[in-house]
Design brief:
The chain is α+β, with helices and mostly antiparallel strands. The chain has a single domain, classed as 2,3-Dihydroxybiphenyl 1,2-Dioxygenase, domain 1 (Roll), CATH 3.10.180.10. The chain is about 20% helix and about 35% strand. It is built from three helices and nine strands, in the order βαββββαβαβββ. Strand 7 and strand 8 form a beta hairpin. The longest helix has 11 residues. Bound molecules: cobalt (II) ion. The site of cobalt (II) ion has 6 residues, from strand 1 and strand 6.
Length: about 130
């Protein structure tokens, strides 16, 4: 059911420092910061040949990654995102197998303008999983 790894998202306490590390130390193609007010994050996209890295930094007091950074002050992997062809079919199949979908279970438009859902990390080996319909 799942396809390509679309991205790995890393929450960072210092967006400029993390972006310059990927650009200057690791030699990656790093985009400009983009505010995503609907998701409470500022994102820097890093294009790798086979996938993307998303650096996430909190935007606003209610940012969903604020708590994550309190628990992980140095930053850390926040979620992985897998591509699916049909996000509602994927959701229904996962629900039928007992997996919990975060929020109201309706796909939201994600940072790439495509429908996304998040799966409960306790149901997936402690990893927050995003599904994106491509
Ligand atoms: Co993501």
């Amino acid at each position: 059911m799942i396809g390509r790894l679309n991205h790995v998202a890393i929450a960072v306490p210092d967006l400029e420092a993390a972006a310059s590390q990927y650009r200057d130390t690791l030699g990656a193609r790093v985009g400009p910061p983009q505010d995503e007010p609907d998701h409470g994050v500022t994102v820097v996209f890093i294009e790798l040949p086979n996938t993307k890295i998303e650096l996430l930094y909190p935007l606003g007091e209610a940012s969903p990654i604020r708590g994550f950074l309190e628990k992980n002050p140095a930053g850390g992997i926040h979620h992985v995102c897998y591509e699916v062809d049909d996000i509602r079919a994927a959701r229904d199949r996962l629900r039928a197998q007992g997996a919990r979908i975060l929020g109201d279970g309706e796909p939201k438009i994600g940072a790439h303008g495509k429908p996304v859902l998040f799966l409960h990390p306790k149901d997936f080996t402690g990893t927050l999983v995003e599904l994106e319909q491509v």
